[in-house]
């Protein structure tokens, strides 16, 4: 996608050919900062500190993190240790495990001297494939938006609600839930996006809104608890969000608050779609509810908030009274029964094992 007049992916090799550059997402929307990663430690920090986030991008960053580690030591022991360090950074998104296992499968059979070159080849392939998968998701999701727009009365705008950030910043390029929106907008479909702020880190207000504004997509940022009201009053035509892990039965784990939006959509008869590339499917997890490891992040993300003051100075302020504690569950699981359909790179299917296996029968285990 573009920032200004320049095309960017969310992660890319530096001009030196071995270090990696990322967009530091903790600085958005107020500053556009490019950060250079030149060690395993910096790659692991980028993931854990959410300089990069979104399941596909986490996986891609981990792959390059392994490349950086192998430049220092390409032995079996070092490879396993580096993979374990990267895997420990964030527990919920399955793409992290998927990318590291793909790297190890390709690298372990090779002599140590050949591993660095191969590692960069595989990491680049993971990035290129992710961009292609997400563009395909955009094409399949576009048909859903076109059908929804066709049901509107002449002159009525299509209203879409999304949660968190599932745009190109969450992937290598295009995004998952936002990819169909970009394609529909570019085709001239009159649409508007309700952007959940997505507390506590405000990925909707900070990242999704920034993306949509850069692409000139009409949108409005809303507080997280406004979605139900909008749905009750006919102001939402469909919902589409991403996912960090999809169980084999179609349960989906996504940013905290997704489950509540799905319940509101179900109560109001509004389609609720999940957009996902196939590496997000955890075929070994039969169901998601009660089984996906839910990341608990620092309470300071809840108790404090950052923003620009009236003088344009970036400040952090405390929100809670002295003595109050904060809990910070980062994800929740939406049962498959509340999901209208899964939008994948191979098409749209029902949220069930049968639906997923119908598209990915060769990959199911």
UniProtKB/TrEMBL annotation:
Reactions catalysed: 5-(methylsulfanyl)-alpha-D-ribose 1-phosphate = 5-(methylsulfanyl)-D-ribulose 1-phosphate
Active site: 244
Binding site for substrate: 53-55, 90, 203, 254-255
Site for Transition state stabilizer, residues: 164
UniProt keywords, alphabetically: Amino-acid biosynthesis, Isomerase, Methionine biosynthesis
GO molecular function terms noted in the UniProt entry: S-methyl-5-thioribose-1-phosphate isomerase activity
EC number of the protein: 5.3.1.23
Domain of life: Bacteria
NCBIfam families, A to Z: eIF-2B_rel (TIGR00524), PRK05720.1 (NF004326), salvage_mtnA (TIGR00512)
Function: Catalyzes the interconversion of methylthioribose-1-phosphate (MTR-1-P) into methylthioribulose-1-phosphate (MTRu-1-P).
Protein name: Methylthioribose-1-phosphate isomerase
Organism of origin: Fodinicurvata halophila
Gene field: mtnA
